[in-house]
Amino acid sequence: MKKPAVEIYDTTLRDGTQGEGINLSAADKLRIAERLDAFGIHYIEGGWPGSNPKDMEFFQQAARRKYKHAKIAAFSMTRRKGIPVERDELMIQLLEAETPVVTIVGKTWLLHVTEVLRATPDENLAMIADTIRFFKDHGKTVFYDAEHSFDGYKNEPEYALATWQAAEKAGADCIILCDTNGGCLPAEIKRVTEVAKSKLTVPIGIHTHNDCGFGVANAIAAVEAGAIQVQGTINGYGERTGNCNLTSVIPTLHFKMGLTCVPASSLPKLRELSLFVDEIANVRPDPRQPWVGATAFAHKGGMHVHAVERVAQSYEHIAPESVGNTRKVLVSDLSGRSNIYWKARELGFKVNPDTPELKAVLNEIKKLESEGYEFEAAEASLALLIRKHLQHTSLPFNVEGYHVSIRGNNGQSVCEATVKVRVKDQIAHTVAEGDGPVNALDGALRQALVKFFPQLEKVTLVDYKVRIINTAAGTAAKTRVLITSSDGHKEWGTVGVSENIITASLQALVDSMEYALQKMQKKS
Fold first, then answer.
1. Using the 8-state DSSP alphabet, how is residue 307 labeled?
2. Residue 503 · residue 482 · CB < 8 Å
3. Is residue 290 part of a domain?
4. In this structure, is the dihedral angle defined by the CA atoms of residues 240, 241, 247 and 251, taken in order, positive or negative?
5. What are phi and psi of 284, to 5 degrees?
């Protein structure tokens, strides 16, 4: 691969873990580092040696591994005030990490120098220079993160420039301008980066935060001004509102700006990388992430779907598969006939645009949505509805009655449910207890159906959501229940709506079981 126009420096394992709710073990970090390396990331910042035991464990393990594309970087601050660099414990720990790259953060803003460090301006310059020179003498590639670059420059431009020049003179391989507070506008980022580029000969990088929602835009502005390295995190993890999101920056550089960064062959794996990091971090993926989110290429409006069917680029800025994503057509009360046609094909039904039943399907969906149903997260219920109109098949079973009660037992409540199910001319009448009324109902229904369909033992309920629709009606309000079920391999969603939460839950449970049976019949 030719030298990239822009290098990608990933700090998910260090800056990303400073985000609320993000906690990675050393083993987690190693797995993510391996995936980042395979993707083609150039630099992977593993953490801050000495800040905690698991970061040191990561560096010890990483030193014994070979990486095809990436270089591992260790992060620390400049030497401390009044301590010679060679005797500073932080510097020694950084050397012990044995990484080919070290990244040093230093102060640019006089406010921080005088009020936080309580150092003189000249002493701060010496701390920057001494630290960089020390690691260059030890054969390291040294990146200098100029903290609060933009706030510092706006406050005292001559001193900010002096800190960058001190880093350059000491031998820094790249000076990274940091919008640490995340409060700058793209125009400010571009202007200051252009100044730095004109005053320095060393390459310039950019490190932005997302406090105003400009993390990605600010990084792009810096690249337009000449920055050749972008620092950020996968999925935008980071302190406060997060860091520059690499899953947006990387495809923007490649597809929108024509700049090489990671290998082109990696781009179709971008969504996979995003989901992998979310999974390791135990974070629910954000469906509205640009480029890689589940709804990034979702179309609901009938006019949009009709146009996309004819010319995809009419409502898509790029082909979804170019970043490993897929097009999704949603069905709702905003749908047109094109939505139903597209969705029916997607769900495996053989239809054409003139199939007469599609109009009846559309009309019923609009009617149900007006009553509170919602099919975007309940595609199994939607598939059953379409099948009913297209194939006119009878239900595999009928629930002829149910009853749920709560009784006291030694000061504690016990929920009990009974269900009566008919399959052809046979009846099953079952009773089950549960942790709550819905749990008891679920248990009773499963017991009844398993007698006729033992394959349903594999089906489990993995998620249950309740939404009150017309809250003004108070306790008489309608309830929408969305459940997610699984057979151990795939998941599907179903929906039920009623003024009675138990009835709504039963509707969703019945749809779930019916859909599972249909799936299993197709396989057999």
1. H
2. no
3. no
4. negative
5. -70, 125
Same domain membership, residue 428 and residue 347: no
Cα–Cα distance for residue pair 399/510, rounded to 1 Å = 8
| Long-range contact pairs involving 291-297 (C-beta distance under 8 Å, separation at least 24) | 291/247, 291/248, 291/251, 291/323, 291/325, 292/247, 292/323, 292/324, 292/325, 293/325, 294/328, 295/328, 296/320, 296/325, 297/325, 297/326, 297/327, 297/328
Gap between the Cα atoms of 359 and 521, Å rounded? 27
- pLDDT tens digit sequence for 309-350: 544 455 556 788 888 877 655 554 445 556 677 677 766 778
The full 3-state SS of 452-483, as one line of letters, equals HCHHHHHCEEEEEEEEECCHHHHHHCCEEEEE
Domain annotation covers residue 79? yes
Domain end position, chosen among 281, 312, 340: 281
Residue 21 confidence (pLDDT): 87
Instruction: Please indicate, yes or no, whether residues 129 and 230 belong to a single structural domain of this protein.
Output: yes
Q: How many CB atoms lie within 10 A of CB 182?
A: 22
Q: Determine the number of helices (DSSP H) and then strands (DSSP E) in the chain.
A: 17, 16
Q: What pLDDT shows up at residue 310?
A: 47
Residue 73 is predicted with a pLDDT of 97
Q: How far is CA 328 from CA 295, 337, 491, in A?
A: 7, 16, 17
pLDDT single digits (tens) 242-260: 999 999 999 999 999 999 9
What is the C-alpha to C-alpha distance for residues 284 and 17, in angstroms, rounded to an integer? 16
Contact 162, 125 (CB under 8 A): yes
Q: Which tokens sit at 505?
A: 């839950």
Residues in the chain where the model's pLDDT stays below 70: 1-2, 296-317, 327-339, 342, 346-347, 376, 409, 411, 470-476, 522-524
Q: Residue 81 gets which letter from DSSP?
A: T
Tokens representing 433 are 């207890």
The residue range of the domain holding 64 is 7-281
The predicted model scores a pTM of 0.70
Mark whether 406 and 313 lie in a shared domain.
no
